[in-house]
Amino acid sequence: MSQIDQDTSRFREIVRGRIKQNLRKYMTDDRLIGRQGKDLVSIPVPQVELPHFTFGQTGRGGVGQGPGQPGDVLGQGQPQDGEGQAGDSPGQHILETDISMSELVQLLSEELHLPRIQPKGNKNIDSEVARYTDIRRVGPESLRHFKRTYREALKRQIAAGLYDPANPVIIPVREDRRYRAFETKTKPESNAVIFYMMDVSGSMGEREKRLVRMTAFWIDAWLKSNYRNVQRRYLVHDAAAAEVDEDTFYHLRQSGGTKISSALQLCRELVQLHYAPSDWNIYLFQFSDGDNFSTDNEQALELLRNHLLPVANLYCYGQVDQRHYGDTFIDALERLDALENLVMTHIPNDDAIYDVIKIFLGKGK
Amino acid sequence: MDFGSLPCELEEIRQEVEGYARTKGLDYPDVRFVMLDFNQMNQVAAYDGFPSRYPHWRFGMECERLRKSYAWGLHRIYEMVVNTDPCYAYLLVSNLEIDQKLVMAHVYGHADFFKNNLWFAHTNRRMMDDSANHGTRIRRYIDQFGLETVETFIDRCLSLDNLIDLHSTGIRRLASRPDFGVEEDEHNTGRMPSKDYMDNYINPPAYLESMREQRKQEKIKVKNLPAHPQRDVLLFLLENARLEPWQQDILAIVREEAYYFAPQRQTKIMNEGWASYWHSHIMTRHALKEGELIDYADHHSGTMATSPGRLNPYKLGIELFRDVEDRWNRGAFGAEYEECEDLRMRAKWDRQAGLGKQKIFEVRRIYNDIGFIDEFLTPEFAQQHNLFTYRYNSRTNQYEVESRDFADIKRQLLFQLTNFGEPIIEVVEANYQNRGELYLVHHWEETDLRHDYAQATLENLFALWGRPVHIETAIQSKGTSLFSYNGHQHEQRALQKPLVR
């Protein structure tokens, strides 16, 4: 490894450390979602800089060259935080680092001490993958292995006494040709389906949806890194439930009452139709403000206890509420016998997301 | 790293360009041209031209930054010259042939400047080897003490590496310690002359003991106090802080490199101006072929481009050199010229002095940027080149043009150049409150320190000094203040009266 690579990788390590330190902040930064590319996320990292005794910005100016009258604007200053901070000249750059999604998830799991998920034992299907690791004597020209071919030719020429080190010309003949060939390997295939269910009744506002969205972003990231194939289904409900696409899920606004059981019922139907528990790892995440019809609680609990919890890896309920109502759905859930794969928590504000993720995913299921 | 040497067609160009440089009177050491692709160029640039420098993450950071901004088309490093003997010059392999020609002429300008400018006189011309030795030593420490330990220490030293005394380089010697005649006379124990039989009476043991104690105290005091306020804080720490040998060595390396690179920052405008003057001169008068004109003009004007919020040192430098040459050719200097208040007469002034060339060679020898601006920036020049000052307006969060007044422009420029536009800080007291605490003074001139950085730097200083550290500065809104760090917490308090020694 050359020296610059060492220094660069050391620098990246430091940046990684900074991201990890500030993970809690990034977890509540919804701009991250917008910055997500196919598998890279762009993260604004606090400037990695060596501090010096140096001047703050206040009162700082300079000499420029060009047209303009006194009072003319040259450029925007940096937003200042606190006394005498921020950049020194127009157009100072912020360090923006691209980090792969998998690396981010790695950091997430290190920071939150998330256990790797143990997929349910018998639910893994083996799939076949082709890997070009073999060498054959026949094959298509496009797969010819040049190095091996020439090595064979060299061996043959030396054996035949045709090789002249002073004039090292090597000419492969047909028998020398070697081709890459694939071997099939079986690879455990694990499938997972995530059901996101959200209450879109009038009481769920923008703020609540934002919390749900950020929580879902991290859940997606974590589960995607654990399973090869992850499907996501989005269900919304007020008094009745419907399946929608991801975009609608976060933007739909309805009014009306709240019947949590309606979503659970729809979820159960979908599971029965498409996701045999023997083939799929099933994850259910439900978000609501907890303000359910009290008569509906019983029905919802019944659905959970008898139909959903037995087939699901995990059922997580996040109650997005600031104030506590009298008897909310989370209280009802607490009356359900403590089951291994049932997790519930409050999500009161941005800062809670860090802990929510830890609670939801910390079970290692 | 694998360096390509000069291919033969470029060697021909080099010989041609060097021929012009030589006949024009440029005086430079042997110049070794090295061809690099853009990746290698970014790497070498990240190491400031020394590919085998000591390992440190900031070089990696710099390289990443260069790579990115190159990929985005924000910059392109055509060449890089290192102040060594022989002088190494890196050329970008993908430059057009005409670019290489221009760049070589530029390089000879830099090489001449490095060799002849007085501010570079103290620099170590064998830095290529020495920086590699520094690298080897630091790598050995890393093997011995662990990466994190050594890296943290380097970070701390680097955080203080602007606390050097630029002017001490003219007189390279260790700061001499004050001599109170305590050490020279070990026998002088304060004993009064006396006859044997009176000795016990005149010099009682208790008295001798107290004298010994007093001397010990004085010795400690002498050792800890800097005799005079000292700008070279790094040297002070090197001599007085309780550091392990390896730490001393690293601190010395950081200090040495800081001094080595300082003149390049001191002469940015002159150095680039001088090199540009010569590439322009050589190209337009001698080396340029007809077909190359457009490419040359494009490249040259790209280098000289100005933008409102930034002062281009290439442009300012080349124009000032040309202005000086012109004025001395015309004889437009001296008392008679200065006293002439008729602008038309001044503009047309021509005494056929013909001293231009001689003058600019003299200027490149004895000035640095501050002197250059102070001496040769004229109101006519400032007006002709549209110079202005700008200032940050906190109400609108914008930078605004402030003034076109010559005095303002000159003051601002000199302020920016003084101590590289960095605060002037001295170590004043090393036994503050008689507790071995280090006391620095910032000479405040209307501009506050950046507080969060000041605190972080104090932490680093504390780590080196090992006892509480203080810096006396001022805050615009509050007056003289003292920032302190005692290893656990920061303190900031208003100071009624500055430290009196």
What is this structure, in a nutshell?
The complex is a heterodimer of chains A (365) and B (501). Chain A is an alpha/beta fold and 365 residues long. Chain A has helices at 3-21, 23-27, 31-34, 101-112, 146-159, 206-226, 246-251, 260-274, 294-308, 329-335, 352-361; strands at 40-44, 61-65, 73-76, 96-100, 125-136, 179-189, 191-199, 229-237, 241-244, 280-288, 314-319, 342-346.
Provide tags for this entry.
heterodimer; A: 365 residues; alpha/beta; Rossmann fold; 3 domains; 6-stranded mixed beta sheet; two-stranded antiparallel ribbon; 11 helices; 23% strand; B: 501 residues; alpha+beta; 5-stranded mixed beta sheet; 3-stranded mixed beta sheet
Verbal overview:
The complex is a heterodimer of chains A (365) and B (501). Chain A contains eleven helices and twelve strands. By secondary structure, chain A is an alpha/beta fold. Chain A folds into three domains: 70 residues, no CATH class; 62 residues, no CATH class; 172 residues, 3-Layer(aba) Sandwich (Rossmann fold). Chain A has a six-stranded mixed beta sheet, sandwiched between helices. In chain A, strands 1-4 form a two-stranded antiparallel ribbon. Chain A has a two-stranded antiparallel ribbon with strand order 5-6. In chain A, strand 11, helix 10 and strand 12 form a beta-alpha-beta unit. In chain A, helix 6 runs parallel beside helix 11 and helix 8 packs parallel to helix 9. Chain A is flat and about 95 Å long. Chain B has 501 residues and is an alpha+beta fold. Among the domains of chain B are: 139 residues, no CATH class; 114 residues, no CATH class. In chain B, 52% of the residues lie in helices and 12% in strands. Chain B is built from 20 helices and ten strands. In chain B, the strands form three sheets. A five-stranded mixed beta sheet of chain B has the order 6-7-8-9-10, covered by helices on one side. Chain B has a three-stranded mixed beta sheet with strand order 1-3-2. A two-stranded antiparallel ribbon of chain B has the order 4-5. In chain B, a hairpin with a 4-residue loop joins strand 6 and strand 7. Chain B is globular. The two termini of chain B are 54 Å apart. About 2% of the residues of chain B have low confidence. Classes of the chains: A alpha/beta (365), B alpha+beta (501).
